[in-house]
């Protein structure tokens, strides 16, 4: 589905992900992620086909258990799509799933969870050796919402922590003699995304980059945030593959691909729709993309309801984060004025890093609005 590249670009390495090439002179690849539970094989296959039909070059699936790996084995029998697996805390699962995918994504901030006595360098070597022996590429996926806790304590600046983490892991991977990798440095703030990718591109000009505004949220805001970041980066040659992260119902997940490809095409044609700066002077509702890590499918409807009931506060400087899983939920809600971190049965309502309480899905909105009105009154 990749098309000829006509956007000016940095002369990065070119890496192969199955039938897709990323970096160098290769066209900009568009990615998405399945929102279905991986163990639901028919639904996941249906979503893969939906994303393929929309033009996805690479499709990501989350793996968090042996059951997910067994499901992946069956899924691979029914599709030839370029699959990238999203490793969670258990990096050791890479050895089981690598034969069925073309790329492995790991988050440096998650390598501390398992086998804490094992040095990070040894864990990275395990992932590199696994990828190399199974003809897989790697993505070093740094996310502001789940940074390495040790580095956060030392640096106390998300951008500097993210840059330090990405640079360190590039060094660790290359020390193993492996260069078939891309890097992502994602934030929910388009301005931070623009800034950090420009800085990293200067630090490591040879490394292909995966662009994304994480937790971009619902439409139309999610598209606007992604477009602002992508347009300003792609236009100066930064970015080799993109993923638009939207909170969507499962049956509408193809919009991530369609919007991503539209943004790339617009930049190629010189059509720019974003303003020079992301002017978020008022209400900013961020929500993570619907994906298979979501603890409860009601998360999507909850995010939509939060946006609806807070519309009258559009002119108020307020950030509300609605997060669907344990991966980025703690970090992103810590940074918001009000956070709703969704679990399987209850929603954790937070004020910054402080927890207010846990409420059923059908009771949390009124309690959230009390906090919204209190904060607005105080300000």
Please sum up the structure shown.
Helices cover 39% and strands 20% of the residues.
Low-confidence stretches: none
Mean pLDDT figure: 91
CATH class of the largest domain: Alpha Beta
**N-end to C-end Cα span:** 50 Å
Can you name the CATH architecture of the largest domain?
Alpha-Beta Barrel
Instruction: Provide the succession of SSEs.
Output: EEEHEHEHEHEHHEHEHEHEHEHEEEH
* CATH homologous superfamily label of the largest domain: Dihydropteroate synthase-like
Tell me the overall shape. globular
- CATH fold-level label of the largest domain: TIM Barrel
Radius of gyration, rounded?
20 Å
Major sheet details: 8 strands, parallel
- Number of strand segments: 15
Main β-sheet, spatial strand arrangement: 8-7-6-5-4-3-10-9
Class by SSE composition: alpha/beta
Total number of helices: 12
Residues in β-strands, percent: 15-25%
Domain tally: 2
Helix content: 25-40%
Task: Write structural notes for this entry.
With 379 residues, the chain is α/β, with parallel strands linked by helices. The protein has two domains: 14-269, Dihydropteroate synthase-like (TIM Barrel), CATH 3.20.20.20; 283-378, Sulfite Reductase Hemoprotein, domain 1, CATH 3.30.413.10. Helix content is 39%, strand content 20%. It contains twelve helices and 15 strands. The chain has helices at residues 41-54, 66-78, 94-97, 120-133, 149-155, 158-175, 190-203, 221-234, 255-269, 298-309, 329-335, 364-378, and strands at residues 14-17, 20-23, 29-33, 58-63, 83-87, 103-106, 137-143, 181-186, 210-211, 241-243, 283-287, 318-323, 338-342, 346-351, 354-360. An eight-stranded parallel sheet has the order 8-7-6-5-4-3-10-9. Strands 11-12-13-14-15 form a five-stranded mixed sheet, sandwiched between helices. Strands 1-2 form a two-stranded antiparallel sheet. α4 (120-133) links the parallel β6 and β7. The chain starts with 13 loop residues before the first strand and ends with a helix.
């Amino acid at each position: 589905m990749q098309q000829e590249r006509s956007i000016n670009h940095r002369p990065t390495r070119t890496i192969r992900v199955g039938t897709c090439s990323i970096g160098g002179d290769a066209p900009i690849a568009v990615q998405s992620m399945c929102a279905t539970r991986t163990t639901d094989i028919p639904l996941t296959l249906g979503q893969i086909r939906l994303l393929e039909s929309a033009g996805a070059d690479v499709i990501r699936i989350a793996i968090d258990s042996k059951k997910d790996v067994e499901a992946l084995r069956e899924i691979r029998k029914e599709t030839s799509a370029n699959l990238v697996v999203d490793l969670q805390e258990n990096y050791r699962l890479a050895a089981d799933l690598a034969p069925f995918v073309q790329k492995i994504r790991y988050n440096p901030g998650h390598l501390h969870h398992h086998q804490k006595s094992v040095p990070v360098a040894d864990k990275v070597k395990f992932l590199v050796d696994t990828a190399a022996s199974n003809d897989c590429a790697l993505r070093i996926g740094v996310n502001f919402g789940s940074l390495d806790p040790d580095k956060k304590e030392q640096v106390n600046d998300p951008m500097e922590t993210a840059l330090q983490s990405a640079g360190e892991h590039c060094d660790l991977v290359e020390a193993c003699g492996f260069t078939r990798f891309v890097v992502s440095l994602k934030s929910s703030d388009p301005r931070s995304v623009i800034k950090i990718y420009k800085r990293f591109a200067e630090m490591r000009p040879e490394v292909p980059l995966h662009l994304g505004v994480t937790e971009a949220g619902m439409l139309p805001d999610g598209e606007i945030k992604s477009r602002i970041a992508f347009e300003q980066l792609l236009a100066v040659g930064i970015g080799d593959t993109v993923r638009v992260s939207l909170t969507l119902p499962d049956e509408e997940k193809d919009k991530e691909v369609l919007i991503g490809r539209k943004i790339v095409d617009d930049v190629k044609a010189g059509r720019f729709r974003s303003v020079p700066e992301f002017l978020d002077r008022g209400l900013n509702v961020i929500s993570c993309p619907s994906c298979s890590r979501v603890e409860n499918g009601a998360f999507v409807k909850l995010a939509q309801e939060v946006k609806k009931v807070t519309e009258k506060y559009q002119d108020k400087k307020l950030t509300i984060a609605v997060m669907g899983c344990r991966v980025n939920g703690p970090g992103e809600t810590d940074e918001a004025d009000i956070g709703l971190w969704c679990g399987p049965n209850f929603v954790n309502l937070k004020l910054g890093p402080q927890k207010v309480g846990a409420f059923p899905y059908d009771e949390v909105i009124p309690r959230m609005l009390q906090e919204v009105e209190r904060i607005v009154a105080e300000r």
